[in-house]
Structure formats: structure tokens, C-alpha cells
Amino acid sequence: MTMKGLKKICSECGMKTELQAISLEVERHGIKATMTGVPAMVCPRCGEQYIPGEVAGKIIDLLHNILDQTESAFHQAYTWTDPELASPQFKGQLILALA
Ligand SMILES: [Zn+2]
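Output (C-alpha cells, whole complex):
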């Protein structure tokens, strides 16, 4: 496997790192987005994780895009009305929440 920016030696303890799949998580305004299967060089001794800069940038951009879309879906006003029941009592507004 060849990938740019793979860190082969741990800068914390000098141990040889191993390529592993890890999860990358971004949390914003109570919404959490996690991407699994992210390639990283992981130190078997101290657990330090090194994600190649190019990969990290791409995935973090993607997670922020997903959070943007999710937040706008949450803040968009979805309403419901029936022309035959034209009363304020029957004017519905959607309320979304994360369980
Ligand atoms: Zn280490």
C-alpha cells in the first residue's frame, strides 16, 4: 500500500507504527457525525494515531458538509395545512429532534 504522508515511526515514543482503520468524529451543536474505516498509522505502544493529512482533510470536510446539511434540515420550517380546515389550530409545524 502506498499513501502519501504515512507516519512510520511514532513521534511520541519512537515505536514503529501500524496501519489500522480508525473512526473519525466531529460534533457540532449536539449533532455527532462519525466516519469509520479511516486509514491511520497507530502506535501499538502509546496509542497515538497519525492520519495522513490529505485523508484527514477530505474526511473532516465531508463530515462538516453532512453536519451543515443536517443542521439546515433541522432549521427548515416544514408546515402542513389543509384548505378545508383553514384554522390556526390545524396549521401544523414539524418539530425534529435527535433521540
Ligand atoms: Zn508511540
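Residues 10, 12-13, 15, 43, 45-46, 48 surround zinc ion (CB under 6 Å).
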